[in-house]
Amino acid sequence: MGSAALMCLMRGHRVAHPPSQSFGEASRATAAAHPAGITPEAFDFQFWMLRSEFPGGPTQRDMNLFRIRNCFFAIVLFSAGALAVAQEQTGPAKAVSKGKPDDQPNMEIEKFGLVLHGGAGTIERSKMTPEREREYRAGLERALMTGYKILKRGGSSLDATEAAVRVLEDDPHFNAGKGAVFTSAGTNEMDAAIMDGKTLVAGAVASLRHIKNPISLARLVMEKSGHVMMDGEGAEAFAREHGIELVDQKYFYTQERWEALEKVKAAEKSRTGAAGKAFIITDQDRHGTVGAVAVDRNGNLAASTSTGGTTNKRPGRVGDSPVIGAGTYANNSTCAVSATGDGEYFIRATVAHDVSALMEYRGMSLKEAAQSVLDKVAKLGGSGGLIAIDRHGNIALPFNTSGMYRGYVDPNGKFVVEIYK
Amino acid sequence: MGSAALMCLMRGHRVAHPPSQSFGEASRATAAAHPAGITPEAFDFQFWMLRSEFPGGPTQRDMNLFRIRNCFFAIVLFSAGALAVAQEQTGPAKAVSKGKPDDQPNMEIEKFGLVLHGGAGTIERSKMTPEREREYRAGLERALMTGYKILKRGGSSLDATEAAVRVLEDDPHFNAGKGAVFTSAGTNEMDAAIMDGKTLVAGAVASLRHIKNPISLARLVMEKSGHVMMDGEGAEAFAREHGIELVDQKYFYTQERWEALEKVKAAEKSRTGAAGKAFIITDQDRHGTVGAVAVDRNGNLAASTSTGGTTNKRPGRVGDSPVIGAGTYANNSTCAVSATGDGEYFIRATVAHDVSALMEYRGMSLKEAAQSVLDKVAKLGGSGGLIAIDRHGNIALPFNTSGMYRGYVDPNGKFVVEIYK
Fold first, then answer.
1. Which of A100, A137, A106, A103 is nearest to A1 (CA)?
2. Which pLDDT band holds residue B272 (cuts at 50, 70, 90)?
3. A81 with A47: CB under 8 angstroms?
4. Do the beta carbons of residue B206 and residue B318 sit within 8 Å?
5. Dihedral, B262, B265, B269, B270 alpha carbons, nearest 10
6. How far is the C-alpha of A364 from the C-alpha of A1, rounded, in Å?
7. Does the CB of A342 have a partner CB in chain B at under 8 Å?
8. How far, CA to CA in Å, does B6 sit from each of A391, B11, B79, B368?
9. What pLDDT does residue B92 have?
């Protein structure tokens, strides 16, 4: 709570009119973390915008009053947070803290946010060429920009996450769509899911073999099938009915993934875990997934996830991505989550819904909840990561591997892309 | 909390030696609810057994001390419960009540319990013939007896729930296995899942067409595939590899289900919801599912669910049953859950994990949590029911339809089978 209050102070606030004036110099502080240097088209864009407070444009007095009020709220909330922590420490009763910064009356905030991942795993800097790293970064930036543009013009988080994931699906570097890994039978089988936090409607697809953009079929299932989850040939027949292009399995052939399958098979034959690890350069070979979570200007959350699964998986294996509540979940009252990693462990730990439940029922912050659930996955023996966003625009990107391809739009509208810890 | 403490007092307690002596005459009170009159082979069986308290056999003094101690705990817990309720009502902090009756030290309880369902829906007494009702009841009783025998001899809850579900899968009256409903393409496609509450390992199968007992394939996936979820032909190939008999689709043909498909199709053609309802005699035609949850003598929970899905579903549609956290979930620290109903809504509400989360994070009782989650499903527009059991042997069987085929072994070892509200 205390940190949430401080974050409130640190956020960039901008009144709707005039567009060039902005509050909160302190907001720049949060932008310092990892600037990637890529500024989107709108230089003057600020992540958090206050509207309706000063319809005629604020005076200096308004601005001062606004700052004072924010400080007051921050102090009140910090105290409440400290009290809540004290209560947690002294008794068995769990304090669910209410009154978060954005719950303040008359603070109608027009905000949006976007976070992406391109898979978590053993990504070692020493084994990554500069060229390859540039390609990964460029892919994530393209996806960020695609989603960002949609959100900026007032589009929905559903549209933004779907579009961002499509970009990653089309990029052979990521294990989804075009770059999907191979099963033990040398086929490509893909899963995906999308969920709307406003209505809790969801769509999921599994074991697709001929769909270029599984995330869009998941969305179609959500909107047109009357079902939530469809798999295999039935899902593809449904796609055909609705004019979605089916592609040959050849479309999903990439030399790199094929070699990864051969390496994993060779490692399995040698039957030594150590040798297996030596064969695999990055866990992208084993398990990668792409995903996006967003909050749009209407405060609606959405999550999208798409994957080729794990290299050398048995045909018919379904991972956590299309399991609503495991790899994908969105709920306006809490958060949107997309996971990546050892899918089996993520299903068993019902990761995505557990993050939401810890926020809703225990009053945890997004960061606390996300880390707590990832710790549970680790305790079961699983590795990976997740991305999450709440309706206040807070984000969390925890992972327990050496790297996770990830990116987000920071509070100043700058794009941040990272790979390693 | 208060009622939990009272329940503790009302439970039948029995010391391990000598076997004929028993505490707690009051335990009979709980048995009065709905005795079906079917007593299993072991007439002297009592649901709750205390062992190790009095290894040499209790004296009258021991028994009196035991009663006094139980009363003392009950009073303490009742007070704590009242306090917790008061706290909930006076402030935003949610009180997670700890110190449940069975958390008392030195009370090693050798208990087991089993609950089954055979689907929830519009089951109207007026439309049920006595003969048909007898057949449903007999099926549920056979399944109960099968699971009960396993638990009684110290078998695992995994074994008991799997075996009980197999009996229902083999019974053409229930929508799973033999009695699976037809898809819109006239095929039968089945889903199933099993979960072990002790280790959180799980197995799930979807869109099976040639597996006589999907629940056993779910178990095999859990134990031998290295995966959690498998679907379609991949899952069936895995089954064949492991010697599971594949059957022709003809095996799943039942006249009744075929007629149900024709009725639903005719109703859809007429495009009037009212006509549709008139055509369908029971919601078993539309959605039925079978499931079992149990706690074994080692205190381990398990859940098993199996279904043919919904009549006239699109081929490839996957329901909530095989979605871990939606239709099936088990966790020793909370509960085991198996759901039945409008699968799409149950996935969106992540029903089974939500019951668990409300118990773990909000300190709700099993009954409160189960009802609360079912209410959420109803709010989304879904109907159905669920069965749940916790490690203390408390059970919940809420449903929001006019009936749910269900059964359980009551605290006196009597079998209770019910259909209507």
1. A100
2. low
3. no
4. yes
5. 70
6. 9
7. no
8. 43, 9, 12, 16
9. 31
pTM higher than 0.80, yes or no?
Answer: no
Q: What is the mean pLDDT of chain A?
A: 79
Q: Give strand ranges (E) for B160-248.
A: 190-196, 202-208, 229-231
Residues 6+ apart with CB under 8 A from A245: A212
| CA distance between the termini of chain B | 26
- In angstroms, what CA-CA distances link B146 with B88, B167, B275, B339, B416? 43, 8, 40, 20, 14
- Does the beta carbon of B329 lie under 8 angstroms from any beta carbon of chain A? yes
User: What does the pLDDT look like over B353-383, one tens digit per residue?
Assistant: 999 999 999 999 999 999 999 999 999 999 9
List residues of A with catalytic annotation. 289
Partners of residue A87 in chain B, C-beta under 8 Å: 93
**ipTM score for this prediction:** 0.76
Contact A202 B348 (CB under 8 A): yes
Does the CB of B326 have a partner CB in chain A at under 8 Å? yes
The label of the residue with tokens 């439970």 reads: B11
Task: Give bridge partners of residue A205 from the DSSP assignment.
Answer: A192, A230
Domain boundaries, chain A: 3-98, 113-420
Instruction: Work out the pLDDT band at B269, boundaries 50, 70, 90.
Output: confident
pLDDT at A124: 76
Written as six digits, the tokens of A275 are: 């040798």
Beta-bridge partner residues of B274: none
What is the pLDDT averaged over residues A394-417? 92
Nearest residue to B351 (alpha-carbon basis) of B375, B334, B368: B375
Report pLDDT for A197.
98
Return the CATH number of the domain spanning residue range B113-420.
3.60.20.30
Confidence class for position A127, pLDDT limits 50, 70, 90: confident
Segment B160-196, tens digit of pLDDT = 999 999 999 999 999 999 999 999 999 999 999 999 9
Contact criterion met (CB < 8 Å) for B234 and A316: yes
- Catalytic residue status for B289: yes
Query: Please, are residues A338 and A360 in contact by the beta-carbon 8 Å criterion?
Result: no
- Look up residue A135 and give its two tokens: 């390609």
- Please give the full DSSP string across B14-37, using - where no structure is assigned: -BSSSTT----GGGHHHHTS---S
Task: Choose, out of A223, A227, A311, A333, the residue to mutate when testing the contact with B (most B CBs < 10 Å).
Answer: A227
Confirm if A367 and A396 have CB atoms less than 8 A apart: yes
Select from A89, A88, A91 the least CA-distant residue to B98.
A91
Taking CB atoms and an 8 Å cutoff, what residues of chain A touch B358? 361
pLDDT at site A398: 98
| Coil/strand/helix, residue B371 | helix
3-class secondary structure, B331: coil
| B415: three-class secondary structure by DSSP | strand
